[in-house]
Design a protein that fits this description.
Blueprint lengths: L7 E3 L6 E3 H6 L3 E4 L2 E4 L3 H9 L1 H15 L13 H17 L1 H14 L10 H4 L8
Antiparallel strand pairs: 1-2, 3-4
Length: 133
């Protein structure tokens, strides 16, 4: 008999939203004090195992603040943990969550879009606009 667990949990070490089934399949879960914890990667799992009480308290506080996990079938929230994962290894993020990577790629492209060249507003350059007071 398999244990019933939520579809998503917050990694108590880095704060990233993690799909529990994916973490279980990758060996990135641990049960502590009767609760399952899932991790984005081996480094977070090792950190948790080093100080489980500290991270268990952090996870409980995060769950209360967030009001629960993501609904079944929903993409994980693009939180700070996802953004760090994207920056550190976007190919691994793409393997796990291709839609999240695509969204972050689009966000990055929008942020780096070229600004208009100077001279786009001849009225302002000619000094014909009155200063705003």
């Amino acid at each position: 008999m398999t244990a019933v667990h939520p579809p998503f949990v917050v990694d108590p070490v880095c704060g990233m939203t993690v799909e529990v089934d994916h973490a279980e399949a990758s060996g990135l879960t641990v049960t502590h004090a009767g609760r399952i914890y899932a991790f984005c990667g081996p480094a977070c799992l090792r950190s948790f195992n080093g100080e489980p009480e500290m991270y268990a308290g952090k996870a409980a506080a995060a769950q209360v603040a967030a009001g629960g996990a993501a609904p079944t079938g929903a993409l994980p929230v693009i939180d700070e943990g996802m953004r760090r994962w994207y920056e550190s290894c976007s190919c691994c993020l793409s393997d796990a969550y291709p839609d999240i990577k695509a969204a972050l790629d689009a966000e990055r492209a929008a942020q780096s879009a070229a600004l208009p060249e100077p001279g786009i507003c001849e009225v302002a350059e000619a000094g014909l606009l009155e200063p705003v007071s």
